[in-house]
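As a representative case, the lines below give one protein's residues and fold tokens.
***
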Amino acid sequence: MLVGLPKEIKNNEYRVGLTPASVRELAAHGHPVLVQRGAGADIGLSDAHYEAAGATLALDAVTVFAQADMIVKVKEPQPQECAMLRPGQILYAYLHLAPDPRQTAALIKSGAVCMAYETITGPGGGLPLLAPMSEVAGRMAVQAGAAHLEKSKGGMGVLLGGVPGVAAAQVVIIGAGVVGTHALQIAVGMGARVTVLDKNVDRLRQLDLVFGNRVTTVYASAHSVEEAVLEADLVIGAVLIPGAAAPKLVTRSMISCMKKGAVVVDVAIDQGGCFETSHATTHAEPTFMVDGVVHYCVANMPGAVARTATFALNNATIAHAVALADKDWKQALKDDPHLKNGLNVAGGHVTYEAVAQALGYPYVNADSLLA
């Protein structure tokens, strides 16, 4: 199978879908790889590195899309990329379709086989291809929040960890999954006062055992979320329903009652965001203000640390890429029910139930396409 690697074109997106090491892995399985020139140059992965790993270079993305049987990307295809997909071609990338009707319609129209990293499950549970970027985003969320608490960036002028004699900032983390746990680690390490909310009491017990009285764990209800948000200097939204739109847990009325100059970081923005006032932003213009509250809602946060994020992502994605190339998609999905969960669109049908429900499409079970 000919595997194609185009350069990412989303705003300030410097990650790359395949590292030279991943290219070498595919080549070892007999799969040629076509790499767009300059695909990894921004993070120190030169064309020479790719050629040494066994890749062939293509001048532009048009050539890659036209020739490849499978396209490997990081972020969802932009409109001009969707237009280059063709029936039966495999797309393997983050898609986040539930809050994105335009992309979903384009992928349905293309007839391509669209595999979403974020809905592939693991034998031990969880979402192993989403986890590494969630780890990065969780850690970055605290950095971004701390920076935007500075007065010059619209914040109230608070140092996250405080100083002797002056209280540290109050950080509230909504969601105790991968994002929330990594945000918690960094916030505690920086000396903030931290409250974490979740509906999973067992998870709260685990965090309490690890962090003890350095954090406050609270069961998440409408009342407790509102109470915590109104006291917070920084709120990090880290709630995920796999494949579905994120629930709006922080309302506009809560935002209007927050401290002026407080900061909210919506890590769930790829799935529509968990703050009612959120809309996606870019690294070029990462924030906006609502009722005096700074909103940081960058949809590709890990792109800011693109080299670290690329290597972490490839560690998680390459095995499935090899399986798809070795077996073709139907056999690969028959053999691996966890990989099958990644199929979101195929042959003009929506094959992921949460996406179909969110956008009003008929749901077609993936099994019906694998006969």
Notes: The domain at 3-120+305-369 is CATH 3.40.50.720 (Rossmann fold).
